[in-house]
Amino acid sequence: MKWMYGVLTVPSRFDELLPRTLHSLAMAGFGEPRLFVDGEKHPDIYEQRFDLEVTVRYPIVHVYPNWILSMWELYLREPFADRYAMFQDDLISVKNLRPYLERAPYPEKGYLNLYTFMNNEALVKDKPVGFLPASQNGRGALGLVFSQEAMIVLLGSSHMAKRVRNTARSKGKLPRGWTHADGAVVEAMNAAGWSEYVHNPSLLRHTGLVSATGSCRYAPDRTFPGEDFDAMEIP
Length: 235
Known about the structure:
Elements: E1 3-9, H1 17-28, E2 34-38, H2 43-50, E3 54-57, H3 63-77, E4 83-88, E5 91-93, H4 97-103, E6 110-113, H5 118-124, E7 130-133, E8 143-147, H6 148-155, H7 158-162, H8 181-191, E9 195-200, E10 204-206
Parallel strand pairs: 1-2, 1-4, 2-3, 6-9
Antiparallel strand pairs: 4-8, 5-10, 6-8, 7-9
């Protein structure tokens, strides 16, 4: 199965959160992501430190613009991939996540959210292990996975294009058009008749106390089985 995948990051996470995330993703089977660094002029710093391909954006474009630009770049570099995935720089993963995702049935007219946020934990509680329909509130974009067809639907969405024009602010923070990629994605996909799916249990854990925008403090998940858990042990 052909994958295209990347990690979104910012310079402030160069020394701690990003290295831990890259190590965990390597153990998960995603060892060669393209780094998309927002607010950095010099890709060579990252290339030398991590030996990965790097795209930098300067001046800063903020979270949502970096997310959608990066998704377009993955698609344009390889428009015939089977799966596209975008990760944030502050997570840990179960082991062997990639082979598990290749084995697990992909939902019809759906996309995968690998991080099961609190509201979705309550929704999937006592349900079978595996991917299940989410609440469709779009909570968390730590790791999103799209089939080729889902990627085309996403990138062709007028909602994704108009999103950056949203100037509303939450509690005096940045305009929503610069933030909340998770909400933008679920709204665009739902409008096209597609749904978000989450996993029981969560396959990722959030390690950053606060989002990169400073917009919220994340509550800890309660279902992540641990970084040493082998996803291939899931029936």
